[in-house]
């Protein structure tokens, strides 16, 4: 089975363990974030002690890494926090060392961590795919609408790696202070995130601070979203990212998946029929829960169900908004704020 | 992430297999802890759900980017009878 749902987790809550696998030498500590039970693929926060050095060599697995803190000497180059590497399996990196120590997020995508001493690439390595960049200094922030429907403004990204076949992505993302987005989302892909700095909030899981992490299998509800003071994080998906937004917090992953299929059926009926008829015939189309779910209805006492009297509500960011009278929520009117 | 078959076949050493087994066991413990923490968060989450319903029916639901749609109170969902609130799904759609 692939990686399980790990959400939320904060690496600050555990200690570094010594890396004892061969090839990595002494002075490398790690905190496991998530691991594929079968392949050994994993994501780890790694601490290189001051004076650490590693001989030139390659991994049997594809590797991504980004420097979190400190400086790393990679061959003749010194790289600093925010530097990102995409390293194909079998690609021989030069010697790696750190004089003053460094923390690095390391992601072995296709197998367990391994290091084979070598100064030449493995013959099967797809060396042309290697790339690295200072993601903090050399890439501008772009608006987050890489997919439609999109995230709210205030969530921006820097694309670090993109797979043109699967549309899998690795990216930095940030949320500006007071970012919020009031919807529930799920995706047709797994999603992973590590908070480099700052705290964000999700309605299902609460606050995710610096060092916060999740690995979330496909079709699991997450959101609404908010960040009071802003955050910056590294995010990844394992295939195309599509935002299925809705507002029912009680749906299951199976129902969400059926809704995804229903949306294909509604949008591309010819394609859908052809796909379904090749292998088997379904007597019923997949169910879109938004069309069938139980709703409150006109006789429901909505005012009584709300947490407030309809004039005052306790928002995610710890403020109390009070608004009297019937009005819209544009920012052209005055709010009476009361801070906790 | 990958997915261009960027993996080179090799024989996994017993040492590496032992390391994986140890990490899998630790991860299972971590999962149990997270699952309990998220169950314990349910009362707070219930309040967050109500506030969410309050906001999307007054301020609006983010339908796409900053485009907001106010959801009519009568269109808000109700929790299906007998279904407990659950947010952690070990293997997504393959969860028991």
Automatic annotation (TrEMBL), chain A:
Residues 306-340 are annotated as: Disordered. Residues 323-333 have a biased composition (Basic and acidic residues). Pfam families: DUF4437. Coiled coil: none annotated. SUPFAM superfamilies: RmlC-like cupins. Gene3D superfamilies: Jelly Rolls. Residues 313-322 have a biased composition (Basic residues). This is DUF4437 domain-containing protein. It comes from Exilibacterium tricleocarpae. The lineage of its organism: Bacteria, Pseudomonadati, Pseudomonadota, Gammaproteobacteria, Cellvibrionales.
From TrEMBL, chain B:
This is Uncharacterized protein. It comes from Exilibacterium tricleocarpae. The lineage of its organism: Bacteria, Pseudomonadati, Pseudomonadota, Gammaproteobacteria, Cellvibrionales.
């Amino acid at each position: 089975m692939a990686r399980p749902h790990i959400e939320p987790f904060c690496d600050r809550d555990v200690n570094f363990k010594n890396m004892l696998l061969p090839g990595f030498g002494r002075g490398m500590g790690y905190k496991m974030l998530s691991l594929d039970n079968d392949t050994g693929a994993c994501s780890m926060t790694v601490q290189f002690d001051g004076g650490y050095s590693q001989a030139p060599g390659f991994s049997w697995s594809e590797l991504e890494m980004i420097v979190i803190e400190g400086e790393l000497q990679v061959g003749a180059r010194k790289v600093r926090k925010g530097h990102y590497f995409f390293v194909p399996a079998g690609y021989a990196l030069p010697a790696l060392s750190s004089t003053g120590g460094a923390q690095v997020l390391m992601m072995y995508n296709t197998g367990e961590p391994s290091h084979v001493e070598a100064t030449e690439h493995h013959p099967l390595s797809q060396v042309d795919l290697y790339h690295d960049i200072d993601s903090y200094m050399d890439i501008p922030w772009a608006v987050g609408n890489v997919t439609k429907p999109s995230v709210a403004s205030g969530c921006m990204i820097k694309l670090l790696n993109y797979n043109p076949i699967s549309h899998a992505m690795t990216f930095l993302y940030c949320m500006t202070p007071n970012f919020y987005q009031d919807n529930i989302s799920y995706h047709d892909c797994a999603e992973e995130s590590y908070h480099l700095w700052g705290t964000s909030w999700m309605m299902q899981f609460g606050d995710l601070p610096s060092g916060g992490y999740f690995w979330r299998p496909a079709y699991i509800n997450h959101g609404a979203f908010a960040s009071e003071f802003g955050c910056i994080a590294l995010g990844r998906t394992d295939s195309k990212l599509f935002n299925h937004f809705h507002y029912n917090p009680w749906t299951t992953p199976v129902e969400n998946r059926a809704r995804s299929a229903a949306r294909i059926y509604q949008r591309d009926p010819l394609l859908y029929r052809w796909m379904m008829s090749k292998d088997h015939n379904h007597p019923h189309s997949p169910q879109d829960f938004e069309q069938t779910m139980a709703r409150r209805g006109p006789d429901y006492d909505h005012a009584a169900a709300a947490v407030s009297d309809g004039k005052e509500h306790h928002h995610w960011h710890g403020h109390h908004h009070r608004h009297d009278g019937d009005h819209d929520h544009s920012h052209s009117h005055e709010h009476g704020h009361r801070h906790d | 992430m990958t997915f261009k078959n960027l993996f080179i076949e090799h024989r996994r050493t017993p040492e590496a297999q032992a390391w994986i087994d140890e990490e899998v066991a630790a991860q299972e413990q971590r999962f149990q802890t997270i699952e309990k923490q998220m169950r314990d968060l349910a009362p707070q989450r219930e309040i967050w759900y109500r506030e969410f319903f309050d906001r999307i029916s007054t301020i609006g639901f983010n339908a796409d980017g900053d485009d907001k749609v106010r959801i009519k109170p009568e269109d808000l969902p109700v929790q299906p009878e007998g279904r407990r609130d659950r947010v952690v799904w070990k293997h997504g759609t393959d969860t028991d």
